[in-house]
Amino acid sequence: MRNSLQKTAQLGLLIVALFTFLGSDQDARFQSLGHKVMCVCSCNQVLLECNHVGCAYSDRMRGELASYVDRGDSDDLTLQALVQKYGPTVLIAPTTTGFNRVAWVMPYLVLVLGLTTVVLIARTWRTRPQIIPASGVGRASGAELERYREQARKDTQV
Amino acid sequence: MSQIGSFALLLALVLSAYSFLAGLVALTRKGRGAERLGETARRAGIAVFGMVFLAALVLVIAAFQDDFSIAYIFHHSNRDLPGAYKFATLWSGQEGSLLFWSLLLATYGLVLRLRYKTDSRLFAHASVIIAAVQVFFLLLLNFAAHPFAVMQGLPQDGNGLNPLLQYPEMVIHPPMLYLGYVGFTVPFAFALAALIMRYPGEKWIQITRRWSMVTWGFLTCGVFLGAHWAYSVLGWGGYWGWDPVENASLMPWLTGTAFLHSVMMQEKRGMLKTWNMWLIFATFLLSIFGTFLTRSGVVSSVHAFAQSSIGTWFIVFLTITFVVCLVFYVKNRSHLRSEHKLESLVSRESSFLFNNLLLLVACFTVLWGTLFPVLSEAVQGSKVTVGPPFFNRVNVPVALLLLLLTAVGPLLAWRKTSIESLKRNFLWPALGAIAIGAALIVVGIRPWKDMTYLYSLMTIMLSALVGFTVISEFIRGGRVIKGHTGQSLFASMVQLAHRNTRRYGGYIVHFGVIVIMIGFAGAAFNRDKEQEMGYGDKMSLGAYTLVCRSYTQEDKPNYSSEWAIIDVFKAGKQIDTLYPERRFYKASQQMATMVANRSTFKEDLYLVYEGLNQDTGRPIMKVHLNPLVMWIWVGVWIMIAGTVVALIPNAVPVRVTAPARIQAAPVGAGD
Prior knowledge:
Helix content of chain A: 55-70%
CATH topology of the largest domain in chain A: Helicase, Ruva Protein, domain 3
Mean pLDDT of chain B: 88
CATH class of the largest domain in chain A: Mainly Alpha
Radius of gyration of chain A: 33 Å
Structural class of chain A: mainly alpha
Distance between the termini of chain B: 82 Å
Oligomer: heterodimer
């Protein structure tokens, strides 16, 4: 008797835990997906952040999203369903397929190209032979000395 | 009334066209006649200010007099609109804002033309360029976006100002932003003038240094006032949404920031002349491009003005400007040869180079992301949305690298720095930053759990690193002065800053930047909750418990409002009462939310009254808990303070004279 009570309690706990975790997982999925789509009421806001008073879309879209998540559709399937219904602008960022890949690649490409250019230019400048006075360094005085002092002041910002 | 305004605008166009043409002719000829012609061009330029000012004044008076025979006033004002917003009517619509732009340009032009004695020939060239820009805006105002168009019939009342714009900051945000946008015309004009003239030396940069900094300061204020307005009014709990209009203001700010850094290399070392020239060209072009984005309807934005045909005008103007810049660059590029070369990769020069590269990559990313929907439509036949995930993914790492450079840069000497000296100066700040990172992990930040937490932790650590290097720079310099003068360390640091205001003002700006970055880092830990709240209902988020005490209504001439009275409890003790509100603006028949925000250094408790649940009829409240947001606004004040310090003239440097017994040897004396 005691053993069966214990088993029932354990089963009950397991069910509660399962529902809790499944529920929280669905909540997390709803939150995550809701931040991957835009509200299409032209408010330019993320679906779950749209607080456009009297918005004719956000409530309906949230309901649809919740029903997809409850049904157990995968993330891809859910997003596809929303794209089918509202068009590609419903996704908050370009996909990583086809021409949309260009959107993601370009900034990094520009960064790499820029870095390479800067490093190459810097190396070219550094490897150029320095002009060395033919007969040693003379001691400066007067206006020339003042010019050097001014240059030193500018360089060191004292 | 409208006839006076129309006439003033037409006269302003004629005068600025004369200022441009007569100035141009005067510059291409020599002799007394040319001088006299140039002087008439300068005076015509000054008179443009009078005419544009008159036109703007007429529009403002019309707003205050509820003159709805003017279509612009009918569309953007109403009888019950409060006085401050009637004044703001001037820039709240397409035509008025273009008039305001023109007025600011005329004001900058006036100051420039009054100060022409500094270098009359350089100023004459710059004046002609500004007149050309002014001609464009006055053409727009006279023929494409006329602010004095009249209504058929006389309406009893106007449509009212957009409710989103009826917020105190909107009286100051657009002027600040426009002062920034328009202000970059002046350094642009000087840069192009210097290129056209093959102006010797870097004096033009010294002349425009203050213009550039003041303009950059205004743009900084404008950008952050916009962010604060979005945070306070739009009610979605954020301050930056990477909206095309926000992006439009950020792009010239990024290139302008790059220019303010790299121009120092030109001043001190005669390097990067071509780069700087194109940076300032790009900044000006991006300012105009931003205006084009906001007004053409090319990209959709919640902030944009109504779609119109003036986009074509902007494209033509941008193209002409770019071609003019390119032609003179190709013609006179030999004048922009660098005087020195980079001597070491570990030097102040190289840190500026990389800083510029990163700022431009960030700018490119913003531009690319803003325009990609248009490109996608052209290539794929369908638009896509480019939202925050795209911009954040690219720009957050870039911002972290920039922070690292901000920390390292001041420790590098011009020309070359030894690794040993870098290690010596970098050790303690780096250890301090690591200690802060470790403390944050102990407190509970788990960077391995989520990328945003990792970015947040890195942001705070790098900000600490910058902060420590800035403080160490002040202390090190202050100690040297203290050793010489015997003053207190604080007084010595003040004197240090006064000796080189630009450098130490710049450090204060950097300090402001890190305070802002810490504020941004807090966004990783934002939380929110939405719930129906009837009388006596409770809602808890974080350490706070909110209890709905009551709902109430009020009717005002301009709007009727409904607000909730929410008591805020923390640890069982009432600490505040908040009043989130919904307004219904009568003239425009539009609803708007007024956020209630309890802001502290630790976090903002941000409450939005979202409306009634259509099924249950019960009010819905949304509460956001946004950590560290106040740091952003405090950081902006520090940045402004730093900019002001950098604008103060240096104290006369103390000259150290050589001891009498050391004689300068004659030239060529050997050894």
